[in-house]
Amino acid sequence: TVDVVRHRAVVALRNLILAGTEDVGRKFAEIARRIHYREEEARSIRGVATPQEAQELHDEGIEALIVSPEVIPPGEVH
């Protein structure tokens, strides 16, 4: 059914994100900036940012993807 396919897609996306990124928690905006400005090694990160931090990153031209809590539940991000 559609629900089963959707669930499998969400699980696959979650696994891909968790396996391919480093969890930087609440330091997401800070570390994203350092990576963007080449003050830190480039790598894929995940974490938490406030709406204001996300807007500031966007305004600076720093790409970040907002992922639904359905994909990465809050308990899996610090």
Features:
single chain; 78 residues; mainly alpha; two-stranded parallel ribbon; 47% helix; elongated
Notes on the structure:
The chain is mainly alpha-helical and about 80 residues long. Helix content is about 45%, strand content about 10%. The chain is built from 3 helices and 2 strands; from the N terminus they run H-E-H-E-H. The protein has helices at about 1-20, 30-35, 50-60; strands spanning about 20-25, 45. It has a two-stranded parallel ribbon with strand order 1-2. Helix 2 (about 30-35) links the parallel strand 1 (about 20-25) and strand 2. The radius of gyration is 14 Å and the shape is elongated. The protein starts with a helix and ends in a 19-residue tail after the last helix. The mean pLDDT is about 90.
Topology of helices and strands:
Elements: H1 2-20, E1 22-25, H2 28-36, E2 45-47, H3 51-59
Parallel strand pairs: 1-2
> How many helices does DSSP assign?
3
Lateral arrangement of strands in the main beta sheet: 1-2
How would the global form be characterised?
elongated
Round the mean pLDDT to the nearest integer and report it: 91
Beta-strand percentage? 5-15%
Secondary-structure-based class equals: mainly alpha
Question: How many strands in all?
Answer: 2
Gyration radius, rounded: 14 Å
CA-CA gap between termini? 33 Å
Fraction of residues in helix: 40-55%
The arrangement of helices and strands along the chain is HEHEH
Sheet with the most strands?
2 strands, parallel
Give start-end ranges of low-pLDDT stretches.
none
